[in-house]
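The passage that follows is intended for readers who have already worked through the single-chain material. We present the inputs for a multi-component assembly, then the predicted structure in tokenized form, and finally a short commentary. You are encouraged to pause after the input and sketch how you expect the pieces to fit together before reading on.
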Amino acid sequence: MMRLVWRQIIGHPVRSLLTVGAVLVGVFLLCLLRSVVTALNAGVDAASSVRLMVQSSVSLFVSLPISYQARIAQVEGVQAVAKWQWFGGYYQDPSNFFGQFAVDPVQQFEVYPEIELPAEQKQRFLERRNSCIVGDQLFEQFKDEWQIGGTIPMIGALFPHPDGADTAWEFELAGVYHSSSGALDNRTLFFQWDYFEKTADIEECGVFVLKVAPGADVTRIMAEIDALYENGPQKVRTTTEKEFQRQFVTMLGAVPLFVSWIGGGAALAILLACVNTMLMAARQQVHDVGILKALGFTDAATFRLMLAQSLSLCCLGGASGVLLALATEGYLVGVLGTFFPGYTIEPQTVALGFGAALAMGLVAGLLPAAQSARLNCVQALRGA
Amino acid sequence: MSEAMIQARGLTKRYQRGGETLVVLDGLDLEMQAGRFYALMGPSGSGKTTLLNLIGGLDHADEGELVVSGESLDELDGAELAHWRAANVGFVFQGFNLIPVLSAFENVELPLKLTPLSRAERRKHAEYALELVGLKDRMRHRPKQLSGGQEQRVAIARAIATDPKLILADEPTGDLDRKSADQVLELLARLNREFQKTILMVTHDPHAANSAQSVVRLEKGQLQGIEDNPAPTARSAGR
Amino acid sequence: MLVPLSYNLRSLWVRKSSTLLTVLGLGATVAIVASVLALQRGFLTMFTAGGREDVAVFLRPGATGEGDSMFRRDLGLRLIKTLGEIESDARGPLASMECYLAVLAKKTDGGETNVPLRGVQPETFRLRGDEIRIVAGRSFTPGSDEVIVGRSLVNRLQNTHIDDVIVLNTTPFRVVGVFEHAGAFASEIWGDLERFMPTLGRYGPNRVIAQLRPGTDLAALSARLEDDKEVPAKVVTERAYLESQTLVFGTALLVLARVLGFIMGVGAIFAATNTMLASVSARTSEIGILLALGYRPLPIFLSFQFEAMLLGLLGGLLGCVLALPLNGIETGAMNWQTFTEFAFAFQVTPAVLAEAAGFSLVLGLLGGALPAWRAARLAPTVALRQG
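Having made your guess, compare it with the prediction:
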């Protein structure tokens, strides 16, 4: 029976290829869009439960005095506190968008154990005041221009260099890190806080990232830190990393919903196309089905024949679509990395792709299969 | 006289066409013996093909009894009828009705897939059937790559692949030239002669009917009579 | 001698279910592309509406937007007092210092977002004139802890109704009015510059805006200020400033529309080709008759091509009809440049519809090419035999 299914598929190569192509396109798009949405949520989903963020209660853009760091470190259960300051500069052109942060190097590695880099690179970063490390994805993007040990000139849009707005800050590239968790993307540049503080003459910092001791009461710690500055000078807000990441997602507003709509619309359009194709295929096979029935094949067998054709085509298209999505993953990380640093094809996305293809195959095959099963073989033979 | 292959009593079949009821078979009584070669003749609209379809279990009669090869066909439902067809009847059509996307071999093998035979046995049976019709060397060809006569012989090979007792042929020579037609008629006669197949062939061509042992005549849905043919032509033309 | 068009119309009608499914599929594709275009259009209009050519925006050199721009207060004042190009009226120069900060706010649906907070001087209202209209309550009293909120924020954010209280750091501000603006200001909270700066710990404004005298050479002004020893500044027209702010998100939407259009278009072309191929193969004998009657292959090619484009156009019309209800629906999105959320509406303009319809025609054209070619290539004898 499967041989006949394949022969029918191969027997109409153009139609079959077009159908497979349409499903391929639909499933690829579905995988792409879902991955974009999961990329948005990557930071939220991968957030660590032992990391807390202290920020101004007013705005992300209002800084906190750095004297807060020592005070927060004294709160019981806090293991390490790292300063984070958004640098907001750009490399060569403002469209080269990636995050840059001034951080406390020692504490940074304590707070983010998922940052992995070779020991000698890490050592170099800790030792050299004007050095920086970059994520491997970011390094990949500029690998022709950057090299370890070389200099990365950054224009400080937010913090102009004291020698003039046109003067670039120069960071020595000490190493390339890889973050093994989605909580920290691989497209960021981190450089030493001390160098930043001395050069920009700044005594404020945007966010403190802290790590709490295992088993410590996170809720109590958050309340205690918030209470420290309840009456100013700068009210703070302590959140879990998950909450902190979520605010960036909610800021996107209806975008994820919109993307889901698009995915649904695309799937619907492809489904309609498949239903149409399978109906056409069934119409062309009326005569064949008549012969099969005359030979003694049952209605159920011809039903399966039609359904199997639809499922085969759609599964083939689905598999190709998923493969295409997987194959283009690396390329798209480069292209979309600016907006979606966490772009990755999750196993669930692969499952969604296959599931959608299977569902399309089932739905598209049902009507033609039922028609074939209902077919009266005398009329089918005569109709030809 | 040998046993009866087909027994029909008061067989009636009606069709609705444009609000009018058309009586195609009108209380037909008929009996045909096993192992004989029958030609079924009659003018257009006399009910030849309808009768053939009923006997082959492709359709149900509205009234009457029909026993074919010992089975009461009017008591079988769709699926049972399908199984019965697979085991008992081989069809040969005017338009050959091969599945275009399958090779000659695969077309012949198709009905064998409904049997419990193993792959190797199916292969053996199909090859034997093709050898019998003289087309073993063309078994990898698609229907489109064969001539009309060859296509019809593949169809005959398919009809006999499962070794049914009854072969039903509907105008098997209608689309063929004289030479190919003669080959097909001879083949049918040989199947009857050497393998004792009961053959019922619908035809309007007296020349074709001449190769049968008996000629059944239908008119307006009723039996006109059965004439025996003392000297069937194909028999004398046999190898 | 062309094949009569009624032949194609009848053929589409005879194959109703197939035609319908194809048109629905094309329609879904076109609707999605149209809605992304409508989103992009709405975003651009919203953002650049009200951007004036005669108003200049002064930023710190190197700044990409007001978020990362900053002036010392005294230098900002000096800029306003010393620049001859600034228009004046009886009460003084039409120029104002503004501070800008994206502050955290709770959305009515529970989430959090960044909303732009703008501290302005009375001159801002003189400069803006009718562009800013109070639609409820009154404007804030200078020197007091009062704010007015943009119309788009009401119902989107908590504490944005009149008499609600917004706490900034440790200071409560009372909402006293709601204002309307055709552009992005409608998604902002405004208050007195002099009250916002100390509350937020700012020492100076983020930018200076000024109405320029007619005939001012902006390029010359810009070049002069860029190298100014006392108050270096970057000057652009307000319109150019707003356009620069839409660059990332606007481009992203346009790219999204193009990419989606391309990917879904390929799928739709496959589907249309399939439909037309089946249509051609079902009509093989009809084509044979046409050929036997003396029709040449080219008219037959054109006939099928026309039919495919008709399918495309029907799909396009359906897509437009599906996209139309989106017109005017408001949505929020983040402006990547300033990290703030603002509201804008889908705008299904005639241009958007025309682009969508054109897209669908192209889909039909490409989808019909192969089947039409096949039909035209048929030999009359073969075509007649296959009937």
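Commentary: The radius of gyration of chain C is 30 Å. Chain C touches chain A through 63 residues (CB under 8 Å). How closely did your sketch match?
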